[in-house]
Amino acid sequence: MRGTRLARWAAAVPMAGLALATIYPLVFTANVAMKTRRDYVLDRFSPAGSLRWDNLAEAWAGAGMARYFVNSFVVVACAVALLLLFGSMAGFALARLRFRGSSMIFLGCLAGLFIPFQVIMVPLTRVMADTGLIDTYPGLILAYVAQFLPFTVFLMTSHYRTIPPEIVDAARIDGGTVYGVYRRIMLPLGAPALLSVGILDALFCWNDVLIALLMMPSPEHRTLMIGVNALRGQYSDDIPMFASGVLIAAVPVLMIYLFLQRQIADGVTAGSTKG
């Protein structure tokens, strides 16, 4: 019993320290957002004297965070929808259809996971500029799809490989077409993986800064993360206002992690045991 207690404490203490290290930045940001600029300069670490919502209201309305929020929501929703559509179709084809070159295509998707965006950002920007997609929503959506599609295809392929092939064979024997098998059988069976992968893709797109900064140079087309960075002035910083923007941008991500943590864990471990 003593050994069991020691083992539990040995695991609990580091995990508690990790939890505190994770929560403290959020608490500090929320505390700074409730201060005036003068209060922050005098003592940045002291608790806020009262709950002041002026900074949040000013950041949301006056600094244009509401418009940036809508921009991010539209772009992320469209990008995730295309990623799930193409990723599920490609995953089904690579996992259950027999055709020449499927192994090479899957290896190509795996290779895409190891290429940093910094390697391809210059040619991608040139291609987008030549096709007139710079500073447009379709351009940013396509850039997100190109960047995160290998990850989506890999996880969906791994999930579909765990489904018994006899299900697909039986459906084909009964006269089902490839599209019918995908739509009526594989798509419903892949719903848990689609949810997990969709959450991860949404988080990737929502938190992105570099791709959005390259694709959307105009202020009116900024995404939320770029808008938060724009709250910092060139010669002086209004840190409470900046903290308010960070808090607004973090709320959707915190909600996703709070209510969908099981699906996120399933998406991270998808295909780790079989595939």
UniProtKB/TrEMBL annotation:
Keyword Transport appears in the UniProt entry: yes
Alphabetically ordered keywords of this record: Cell membrane, Membrane, Sugar transport, Transmembrane, Transmembrane helix, Transport
GO CC annotations, alphabetized: plasma membrane
Places the protein is found: Cell membrane
SUPFAM superfamilies in UniProt: MetI-like (SSF161098)
TM annotation in the entry: 12-34, 68-92, 104-124, 136-156, 193-215, 239-260
Topology term for the membrane: Multi-pass membrane protein
The name this protein goes by in its record: Multiple sugar transport system permease protein
Organism whose genome encodes this protein: Nonomuraea thailandensis
